[in-house]
Each structure stands twice: as C-alpha cells, then as structure tokens.
Amino acid sequence: MGDMASLTVGFDLDMTLIDSRPGIHACYTALAARTGTYIDADLAITRLGPPLVEELAYWFPAEDIPAMTTLYREIYLETGITAAPAMPGAWEAIAAVRAAGGRSIVVTAKYEPNAKLHIEHLGMEPDAVIGDLWAEAKAGALREHGASVYVGDHVGDVRGARTADAYSVAVATGPCDERELREAGADVVLTDLTAFPEWLAGHTRREAQA
Predict the structure, then answer these.
(1) Which residue of 14, 109, 113, 155 is 20 to 30 Å from 175, comparing CA positions?
(2) Could you tell me the superkingdom of the organism this chain comes from (predicted)?
C-alpha cells in the first residue's frame, strides 16, 4: 500500500460507527405492541450484527417473517434513525482516512436505504454506503472497492475482512468482546474508534515502508 491514494478503509455501521441500540430497542417494543407478540427488546439489542431476519426468527414463525420485516422497517423510519447517535470517534475515524489520502466506505448488514439515512442524519461523509451484506458476503463489496482494511465490532465483520484478504481491525464496542474478536482472527482489537486515527497513522507508515 505504498501509494496512500489507493487506501480504502471499510467500516461496519451498527455498533461501529453508530450506536443503533436506542432506535432498535424502540422498534422492537413498537413491533411487539402492534403485533401482540412478545419480544425481549433488551435481549435483542445485545446481539446486533446479523441480518434483521435472524433476530425476527426468534420471535415469529418463518411464514410471518417477510411481513414482519416490512413492518419493522416502516417503524424504523419513524423511530430508528434519529435515535441513533454516532459512536465515540466515528467522525474522526472517517476524517483520518481522508487525511491519509484515502477513501472510506460503509459495508453493513443493515437495509441499505436505512443505512444511508443514518449516514445522512449524522452528517458523515463516506465515499460509498453498501448495505444488506453480512459476514463473508461483505467480502465482495470490500474487494470491489479495493478495501485493504475493514473495521467492525462483530466476529462476522472479522470473517468478512479475512475473506476479502483485508486487514481486520476490530473494535470492542458491540456484542463481541476482545477475546472473541481475536479468536475470530482480528489483526488488531481497539477499545473503540477513538484509537483508530493513531492506529491508522502507524499502519500507513509501516505499509509505506514495506
């Protein structure tokens, strides 16, 4: 990566760039009220990362999941976007990539239109937002955009990075702790994104000298 103009860094969204727990909790609470179905929203927000349909499968029979997905996304537009703040260091992480002469992209399992609404609401300015991709499936978008680094909070993000032959930077801000992230194959685990600019500066120096 000696030419820093070629640097592209991918970021996950939920619990990496944004704290989506308040909005998702409100959505599951509203979904339970509208459908009369018990949903433990407190539990649901402890396992963010996988696609929505995987969480819905804990609470609804398979034949109802398509309709519940549509209803959830309608509710999400009402409550989920504005309730989600940026994670500490999120803006600075994207700015650090730009300052290094690189591009930043968001690759997330979240429904792409909603992912873009989050980015717009918070005023973040990545170069691209790609949604509806989980774990190893993220590798296609990472390769397409030439990402050499992928930052995420879940072991699924680590698997996506490894599949894409990208450097896996994990942040211990989601449901997976440092041990789980390292065991999954993360190259480095940061406490949160506030440590990312310093890490990136060191990483780009090392790569330029390689």
Answers:
(1) 113
(2) Bacteria
